[in-house]
């Protein structure tokens, strides 16, 4: 099965629910339990993925808080989730896709069929370059494009035309402009809308606190 685009909506999911593996990617920076949120309420048929245990290796001072897991660990996690080599995967969260995009990116670089559900709630059905300076800031000449501005007030992504305008304004017309994000984890959220608008940027470098992220 070929998924239509990096994003699918609730109507598409209803029509193809039995053809995909649905993954709940809820995880919270403030310490709340994604597992508890999943157990309290989740979309029918969804399985829950643990960002810390399934999608990341243990945190280290060298690799940051959420480095990539080993290939064996990731393969074991996918097997436990019922995801085979040809299993189309649709993932969701309740944070505008910022958590789901982590799994989307990890599977996308393996050329796996994958998409993010563009809905907020149930009702809506790196390279090895060293860190130059551990103090966080911005690269000279960089332009700010916060990931939160990719979404509308109801939590869904902006339409492709609006996203493309936003990214072209941010990076100009350079087809492979590099990007960087401070915490690292939510950088993947930018890849989903950029991929859908054909505005791409280069694979990144390591920044403070983040090794396995697509940024510079």
UniProtKB/TrEMBL annotation:
Region (Disordered): 127-153, 196-216
Domain Rhodanese: 16-133
Gene Ontology MF, one: thiosulfate-cyanide sulfurtransferase activity
Chain segments annotated as transmembrane: none
Matching SMART domains: RHOD (SM00450)
Keywords, in A-Z order: Repeat, Transferase
InterPro entries (alphabetical): Rhodanese-like_dom, Rhodanese-like_dom_sf, Thiosulphate_STrfase_CS, TST/MPST-like
Keyword Cell cycle listed: no
Keyword field contains S-adenosyl-L-methionine: no
Name of the protein in its database record: Unannotated protein
Organism: freshwater metagenome
């Amino acid at each position: 099965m070929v998924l239509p685009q990096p994003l699918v909506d609730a109507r598409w999911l209803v029509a193809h629910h039995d053809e995909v593996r649905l993954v709940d990617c809820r995880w919270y920076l403030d310490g709340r339990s994604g597992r508890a949120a999943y157990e309290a309420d989740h979309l029918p048929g969804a399985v829950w993925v643990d960002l810390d245990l399934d999608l990341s290796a243990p945190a280290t001072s060298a690799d940051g808080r959420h480095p990539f897991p080993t290939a064996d660990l990731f393969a074991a996690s996918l097997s436990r989730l019922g995801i085979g080599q040809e299993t189309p995967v649709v993932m969701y969260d309740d944070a505008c896709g910022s958590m789901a995009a982590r799994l989307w990116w990890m599977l996308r670089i393996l050329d796996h069929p994958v998409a993010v559900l563009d809905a907020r709630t149930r009702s809506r059905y790196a390279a090895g370059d060293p860190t130059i300076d551990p103090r966080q800031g911005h690269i000279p000449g960089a332009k700010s494009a916060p990931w939160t501005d990719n979404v509308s007030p109801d939590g869904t992504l902006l339409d492709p035309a609006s996203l493309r305008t936003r990214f072209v304004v941010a990076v100009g017309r350079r087809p492979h402009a590099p990007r960087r994000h401070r915490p690292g984890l939510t950088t993947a959220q930018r890849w989903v809308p950029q991929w859908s608008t054909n505005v791409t940027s280069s694979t990144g470098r390591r920044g403070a606190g983040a090794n396995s992220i697509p940024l510079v």
